[in-house]
Design brief:
By secondary structure, the chain is of the alpha/beta class. The protein is built from 17 helices and 23 strands. The chain has an 8-stranded parallel beta sheet with strand order 13-12-10-5-2-1-15-14. Strands 16-17-18-23-20 form a 5-stranded antiparallel beta sheet. α12 runs parallel beside α16 (about 455-470) and α13 (about 385-395) packs across α14 (about 400-405). The two termini are about 25 Å apart.
Length: about 550
C-alpha cells in the first residue's frame, strides 16, 4: 500500500505564501510560521514550488544552483528547519524538480560559454548557426539563441525562455549529475518531487524544420520536443538511480501523454507514482492556442473528459487531481460564469474533484475561494508568459485595452497574488508592499474571516478532508472503484465510489436551476454544501442550484 494514495497535498508558491521578514517576498520561515494552519486544515503533504538560487526570470523555474536556497527565501538552515518542523507534525515535503533546463546563470552554462572544450559544453544542446531550426519557444521567439562569445556562429536550444537553456539528456555524464542532486535532497528527508516539464527531456535528434503554424514563420516547439520516442529510457534510468532507493512520491508534469502510453509513466513498472491529468484543466483554452482565443464548452462535455480520464487511469495506475496550480487561473473563474460565482458553486467545484479516485491537490488560497485579479496595466503583471501573450495579441491587431482584457483571465499571476491571511493591509501577507499586488477582494476573502464562519469555504474544505480521512470511509473514498452516475442528465456531474461493503454517491448540480434525481434508499448524508436536503418523494431528491451531496447508500 502506498502512503501517497491516502494523502492530501497542499501546493505552496513560496514567493506569495507568507513574508516573515517584511521584505515583500514570501519565504521559508513564512511557511514554518503557517505549519499550524496547514495541520489544522488537515493536509498531509506540502509541495513547494522552486526556492533555489535563481535570477527569477521565470519565478524560480530557472535554477542557477540546485543545492542552495535563494537568499530571498532564506537559507539552507531555514530549509532544514522546515523539514524537521513539518516532520514533527506528520507533514511530508515535496520539492519541485526542474531538470529539463536550468538557468543561463548556472555554473554549468557559464563554463560552457567560457571553455569550449569543457565537459559542461556537452551538458547543453548547441548547434552551428546553419543547423538551427524554426521551432518557437513556449515563451515566444525562436527556440535557438546565439551562444555568448561564439561570434553568432553557435546557438543553444531552449524550450522555454532564452534564459533557460535545455539540458542535454543524451549526455550520460549530465544525467549522473542530476541523479546525484536528486539523491542529495532525498537523503535530507524530503519525501519526493513534483517533476517539472519532464516530457520535454527527449528531443527529436534530427531537429527538422516544421511547417510554420504562425505569422512569425515558426512552428511550436512541442512538435519536436515533447513525448519523443526513447524518452522512456531516460525516465526508467532516473527512477532506478534515484526514486527506487527511497519510499518517496513522484508526480510528473507530463503534459500531452496519450492514454495508450500511460503504462510506462504510472503502471506497475511506471516511472512515477502518478502524473497530472490536464485534459479537463482549462476547458476554454484551445490546444496550443493564443490566450486571446476562447473555446466554447459545456458542463456535459467537461464531465465526459473527467469520466474518460478516470476510466483510463484507473485501469493502469494512479493520478492526482487538481483544479488549480501556480500556472493556471483560479478555478472559480475558469469553470464558473461571473453570475454563477457564490459560496455554493465554489464548494460544488471542490466536491467534484475531491472524491475522484486520486490524490487530491489543493493550491494555496483555493480553500478560501480566492479569485482572479484585475490589474489595470500590463506593467502590473510579473509573469513572463503573460507579457509574451500580451505582445502576441498586439501583433494580431488588438488595441492595448482589448489585449489586456483578453489575456488577463489567462495570466499565471492570477494564482500568484499574495495569500490572503487577514483583512489588514497587504492581506496579512506582509507589512510592506508585496512583490505582486494583492487582490483587491482580500478584505472579504481571507483566512481570519473564514476560520470562525462555519459556512465558509475554508471550513467546507476541512469537512471534505476530514471525511476522506475518516476510518469508516477512507477505504472506499480512496481505493473504491469509480463509475459515473446520471451520465445523461444535463449539467449533473455525479459518480459513485464502491467497494465490496460500501457505495458512496457524489452528486453535483452544476447549474443555476433546480432539478430532481432518483437515488437508492435509504441513504445517509455525509456532506452537503447547503444546510438542508429536500426529498420530494420516496426516492427523489430535489437538488438546489449548485448543490453538492455526498451520500452513503446504506
Amino acid at each position: 500500500m502506498n502512503w501517497w494514495k491516502e494523502d492530501i497535498v497542499y501546493q505552496i508558491y513560496p514567493k506569495s505564501f507568507k513574508d516573515s521578514n517584511n521584505d515583500g517576498i514570501g519565504d521559508i520561515k513564512g511557511i514554518i510560521e503557517k505549519l499550524d494552519y496547514l495541520e489544522d486544515l488537515g493536509i498531509n503533504t506540502i509541495w513547494i514550488c522552486p526556492f533555489f538560487q535563481s535570477p527569477m526570470i521565470d519565478n524560480g523555474y530557472d535554477i542557477s544552483n540546485y543545492y542552495q536556497v535563494d537568499p530571498m527565501f532564506g537559507t539552507n538552515e531555514d530549509l532544514y528547519e522546515l523539514i524537521d518542523q513539518a516532520k514533527k507534525k506528520n507533514i511530508k515535503i515535496l520539492f519541485d524538480l526542474v531538470v529539463n533546463h536550468c538557468s543561463d546563470q548556472h555554473e554549468w552554462f557559464q563554463k560552457a560559454i567560457a571553455e569550449p572544450n569543457s565537459k559542461e559544453r556537452n551538458y547543453f544542446i548547441i548547434k552551428k548557426k546553419e543547423e538551427i531550426t524554426n521551432w518557437r519557444a513556449i515563451f515566444g521567439g525562436n527556440s535557438w539563441s546565439p551562444l555568448p562569445n561564439s561570434n553568432d556562429e553557435e546557438y543553444y536550444f531552449h524550450v522555454f525562455s532564452k534564459e533557460q537553456p535545455d539540458l542535454n539528456w543524451e549526455n550520460p555524464e549530465l544525467r549522473k549529475e542530476i541523479y546525484k542532486m536528486i539523491n542529495f535532497w532525498l537523503d535530507k528527508g524530503i519525501k519526493g518531487f513534483r517533476v517539472d516539464a519532464i516530457t520535454y527531456i527527449k528531443k527529436n535528434q534530427q531537429f527538422p524544420n516544421f511547417a510554420p503554424d504562425g505569422l512569425d514563420g515558426l512552428a511550436h516547439v512541442d512538435k519536436g520536443s515533447i513525448n519523443q520516442p526513447g524518452i522512456e529510457s531516460f525516465l526508467k534510468e532516473m527512477k532506478t538511480e534515484t526514486f527506487d532507493k527511497y519510499d518517496c512520491m513522484t508526480v510528473g508534469e507530463a503534459v500531452g501523454v496519450p492514454y495508450k502510453d500511460l503504462e510506462q509513466y504510472v503502471g506497475d513498472g511506471g516511472c512515477f507514482s502518478m502524473i497530472f491529468e490536464f485534459s479537463y484543466d482549462n476547458p476554454s483554452m484551445p490546444s496550443q492556442g493564443n490566450w486571446y482565443d476562447y473555446k466554447q464548452w459545456t458542463v456535459d462535455e467537461w464531465k465526459q473528459k473527467i469520466y474518460k480520464a478516470q476510466k483510463h487511469i484507473s485501469k493502469i495506475g494512479w493520478s492526482p487531481t487538481h483544479i488549480e496550480n501556480h500556472d493556471s487561473p483560479r478555478s472559480i473563474n475558469k469553470f464558473l460564469h461571473p453570475d454563477q460565482i457564490c459560496g455554493h458553486s465554489v464548494k460544488m467545484l471542490a466536491t467534484i474533484f475531491f472524491y475522484l479516485r486520486s490524490t487530491p491537490f489543493i493550491y494555496q488560497g483555493q480553500e478560501l475561494g480566492m479569485s482572479n485579479v484585475h490589474f489595470n496595466s500590463i506593467d502590473d503583471y510579473d509573469d513572463i508568459s503573460t507579457h509574451d501573450h500580451f505582445q502576441r495579441a498586439l501583433n494580431a491587431g488588438f488595441k492595448e485595452e482589448e489585449a489586456l482584457r483578453l489575456i488577463s483571465p489567462r495570466s499565471r499571476d492570477n494564482a500568484r497574488t499574495p495569500m490572503q491571511w487577514s483583512n489588514s493591509k497587504y492581506a496579512g501577507f506582509s507589512e510592506v508592499t508585496p512583490w505582486l499586488k494583492v487582490n483587491s477582494n482580500y478584505q472579504n476573502v481571507n483566512v481570519d474571516q473564514q476560520l470562525n464562519d462555519p459556512k465558509s469555504i475554508l471550513n467546507y474544505y476541512k469537512k471534505m478532508i476530514e471525511l476522506r480521512k475518516q476510518k469508516k470511509y477512507c477505504s472506499v473514498l480512496v481505493y473504491g472503484e469509480f463509475s459515473p452516475l446520471f451520465e445523461n442528465m444535463k449539467n449533473i456531474v455525479a459518480y459513485q465510489r464502491t467497494n465490496n461493503e460500501q457505495t458512496i454517491y457524489i452528486i453535483n448540480n452544476f447549474q443555476s436551476e433546480y432539478c430532481e434525481i432518483e437515488v437508492e434508499m435509504p441513504f445517509k448524508v455525509l456532506l452537503n454544501n447547503y444546510t438542508d436536503i429536500t426529498v420530494s418523494s420516496q426516492r427523489l431528491i430535489y437538488l438546489k442550484p449548485f448543490q453538492s451531496l455526498v451520500l452513503d447508500i446504506e
